[in-house]
Amino acid sequence: MASTSDIRNGLCIRYNHDIFKIIEFLHVKPGKGPAFVRTKLKSVTTGKVIDNTFSAGHKIEDVRVETHQFQYLYNEGETYHFMNTEDFTQITLQKSSLDAPDLLKEGEVVTVIMNAEDGMMPLSVEMPASVILEVTHTEPGVKGNTATNATKPATVETGAIVNVPLFINEGDKIKIETEKGTYKERIKE
Q: What is the pLDDT of residue 143?
């Protein structure tokens, strides 16, 4: 058993007969009344995100997990196939258990969190902090359009649509922050 002082991003807990991953938390100490922890929990089975508040010192049941490196192979509709980089075993996961499936490129290495208590059942997938993808379609850029913060939609090689600055053209490689799905910078070869 853990308490609210052990809460951190990525911690998996058992709550309301389900396993949730903490994706956001905030310790709050109001001027009046007891302290509490405001959390955003994502169900690893359904992908549903809920807000919850725990009072300070509340006991939470943490789930013992292990992390393994897996390479993304391909997807068939809603099913995504991954291969363990150590022993080459393959697993399949549903699209709902992935945080940013539209930014996954074939061959990308991700971290899969597995429930060590329940026969190594996959719980969730952690993407790298950022990915580099090539722009396959966007309106042509115009020289001199770098002074403003105006953006335009661009389709990248995985099919995801990302808002990019006006100077980005087709064929450019861009770095995308996977947590928010936002443009970070253009990559020069």
A: 65
In sequence order, which residues have a C-beta less than 8 Å from that of residue 161 and are 6 or more positions away? Answer: 153, 154, 155
What pLDDT digit, counting tens, does each position of 120-158 carry? 777 778 888 888 889 998 888 666 666 667 888 899 988
* Alpha carbon distance 25, 64 (integer Å): 20
Report helix, strand or coil for 151.
Answer: strand
CA 73, chain centre distance (Å): 18
pLDDT at 145: 60
Q: Which structure tokens are listed for 20?
A: 């949730």
Distance CA 181, CA 161 (A): 9
Residue 62 contacts residue 6 (beta carbons within 8 Å): yes
Cα–Cα distance, 12 to 113 (Å, whole number)? 9
Cα–Cα nearest to 49, from 112, 100, 96, 101: 96
Q: Contact 92/79 with Cβ under 8 angstroms?
A: yes
**C-alpha span between 55 and 53 (Å, rounded):** 7
Domains located in the chain, CATH noted: 2-62 (2.30.30.30), 65-126 (2.40.50.140), 130-187 (2.40.50.140)
56-74 pLDDT per residue, tens: 888 888 888 888 899 999 8
